[in-house]
Each structure stands twice: as C-alpha cells, then as structure tokens.
Amino acid sequence: GYVRGYHAQVDEAMLGFNLVVMVFVTLHNHAQADLRAFEDTVLRWPLVRECYMMSGENDYFLKCVAPDMPAFQEFLLEELTPAPNVASVKTQVSIRKTKDEPGVPVDPDRLG
In angstroms, rounded to a whole number, what is the distance separating the alpha carbons of residues 107 and 41? Predict the structure, then answer.
C-alpha cells in the first residue's frame, strides 16, 4: 500500500517547457463549495502541475510550467486571473532548480 504508482522523470526543458513559475492565489470566498470549485478548475489546467491549499496569507500554491513567458502570460491573463472567485495572484519565476527529489525520505527499518 505504500506505492501509489510509477512514473518517468522527464526533462522538462527537452520537452519544451523552459519556464517554471510558482503562483500564490488568494480567493474572495472560502466556503467549502467555493474552494472545491476552484480546485475543480485547477484540475483542468495542464500548465498547473502541482496545487496545494495553504495556511497563512495565500489560499493556494500552484507550481506551473510553460514553454516560455508569452505562453505563461496567456494562461495567467486568460485563465487564472479571470477565474471565478480569484481575488489576487502573485507569481515568482524560477531561476534554476537546485534539488528535485520525489517521494519522502523513507527509513527502510520503519517499514517493517
């Protein structure tokens, strides 16, 4: 039950995805139905690779990939910013990846 699946670790740049952007989203309303509606919308956006509901100042953190800045800008202006219930969006562009280690640090002795 520990393994949920297998996947290939691909080189994003070789596939044409040269831009990684961290996006912080704040919503207007926080009722469960509004949160679920936003999450359902996120599931339809292929550029969003990871989505986390957050505590603190921002409601969601999205990790996005795009071929280039114009492609990300189109997503930002045409899909994310005008999405229902989105109050604000803050972005930070990644300069380079320092570590990419999937999974969790497992101690084999704890698995029994």
Answer: 37
